[in-house]
Amino acid sequence: MKQHIIDKIKQYNTIILHRHVRPDPDAYGSQGGLAEIIKATFPEKQVYTVGQEEPTLHFLRRLDQIEDSVYKEALVIVCDTANQARICDQRYKLGKELIKIDHHPNEDPYGDLIWVEEESAACSQMVYELYKTSEGQLKMSDAAARLLYAGIVSDTGRFLYSSTTKETMQYAGELMEYNFNRQELFNSMYEKDEHILKMEGYILQNFKMDRSGVAEIRLTKELLNQFNATQAETSQLVSILGSVKGIQAWVFFIEEDDQIRVRFRSKGPVINGLAMKYGGGGHSLAAGASVYSWEEATSVLEDLKLLIAKK
Ligand code: AMP
Asked: How far is the CA of 25 from the CAs of 15, 153, 187, in angstroms?
């Protein structure tokens, strides 16, 4: 499959890369990293990265604005996105051929070519692997290495999650040999604004955990306003409950204008099935969904408690 993807990249003069909505560094890293690899290898090709920009990730990459007509003769590659509804910029359908590269469960096998490695710690790790196994057909650049490194570091929780393998460390080590400022990258990724740290304080003071180790926190619109935090910024907060002794699984409910976003995390029990029950999905230990009332949020919590009780 990797060679087929490389052949398609060679074949097309215009290549447009997409990724998922509400992007994280792995979405930016895999999309931008692959774009930079293609640019370094084939400087004559037109390569675009598209999607709605996330201001907190401007430091990683700025994206391109393109006309619909650019898609006409283009190869479209979608990175890090399990299902079509979550692809950012639905014009991905306008291309001539479509490739899916992803590390989430392959629930929606879209595309003419599909390369899914559910075991891979990051989509950026897969892109590095594509480069590595190309045996010289693809070239790495400093810009690509920086993006892929950021994606791997972020999606492994700085190499903490169980998805981290020997290969993950090896690839990250190889990427470190390229010329980019790691300290600056880490500062941009991990320095937090004061209001976010204060909100962390609120969460640590107010989360509720039952005896079985299921925890929840509800972040209402009112609360977000009070801390001057945006919905997007709450993604920086979800992992903090992971260090609570005895915690098994937890859920963040984040109120938006038209929905309540549900973010699940687990220390072991598989929780993406539950996310799917509520119309969402994700990885076995990190998943998400949306509900539309606080009553429904309570059902999600009850279901999570049942799931942990059955474990
Ligand atoms: P997040 O809490 O946004 O970091 O999401 C954790 C994981 O769940 C990510 O890998 C997302 O791809 C996935 N995910 C989150 N929300 C949804 C959703 N509504 N539908 C499908 N997958 C989701």
From this structure: 21, 9, 14
Integer-rounded Cα Rg, in Å, for the chain is 20
Using CB atoms within 10 Å of the CB of residue 208, give its burial: 0 to 12 exposed, 13 to 18 middle, 19+ buried. Answer: exposed
Q: pTM of the predicted model, to two decimals?
A: 0.85
Residue 213 sits in the same domain as residue 249:
yes
Same structural domain, 167 and 222: no
Q: Report the candidate in 75, 86, 26, 82 with the shortest Cα–Cα distance to residue 52.
A: 86
CATH number of the domain encompassing residue 243: 3.10.310.30
- Cα of 308 vs centre of ligand 1, distance in Å, is 20
- Residue at a domain's end among 130, 158, 189: 189
Q: Whose CA is nearest to atom 2 of ligand 1?
A: 263
Domain enclosing residue 258, as ranges = 195-309
Q: What stretches in the chain show pLDDT beneath 70?
A: none
Q: Tell me: do 272 and 296 sit in the same domain.
A: yes
30, 158: one domain:
yes
Q: What is the per-residue pLDDT for 301?
A: 98
- Residue 263 Cβ contacting ligand 1 at under 6 Å: yes
For 97, phi and psi rounded to 5 degrees?
Answer: -140, 155
